[in-house]
Amino acid sequence: MNAITAINQIKYRSEHLLLAVLFCTLCVLAGLYFYFLSVSVIHVVINEELNEEMNKVQGEIAGLEAVFMEKQHNLSIDLATSHGYIATGKKIFIDRSNTSVVTQR
């Protein structure tokens, strides 16, 4: 009788231990689930903020490039006029086709 009682007691202890391990595993998995869920939400929020910041910076860069081109163009015109060049009126282009007056012989 003592052997049967000892086996039942060991069986009960192992089931109790198995139940405790399963409960702890479930708690750890639930904790990991909520951790990864919160991290992914934070990642999405940070990504959206960075996209807005990138768009803002790209807009500022485009504005600075426009100012740069305008100043570069003005500098070129000012430099050319200071060297004595003048703006031309009407431009004449030459056509090299056979019907052109310039290339006919």
Walkthrough of the structure:
The protein is mainly alpha-helical and 105 residues long. 77% of the residues lie in helices and 0% in strands. The chain has one helix spanning 2-82. The longest helix has 81 residues, at 2-82. The chain is rod-shaped, with a radius of gyration of 41 Å. The model has no long low-confidence stretch (mean pLDDT 83).
Summarize the SSE layout with pairings.
Layout: H1 2-82
Name a few traits of the molecule:
105 residues; 1 helix; mainly alpha; 0% strand
Task: Give a brief rundown of this model.
This protein has 105 residues and is mainly α. 77% of the residues lie in helices and 0% in strands.
User: What general form does the structure show?
Assistant: rod-shaped
Taking all Cα atoms into account, the compactness measure Rg is 41 Å
Estimate percent helicity. Answer: over 70%
Termini, distance in Å? 131 Å
Structural class: mainly alpha
How many E strands? 0
| Uncertain regions spanning at least 5 consecutive residues | none
What integer is the average pLDDT?
Answer: 83
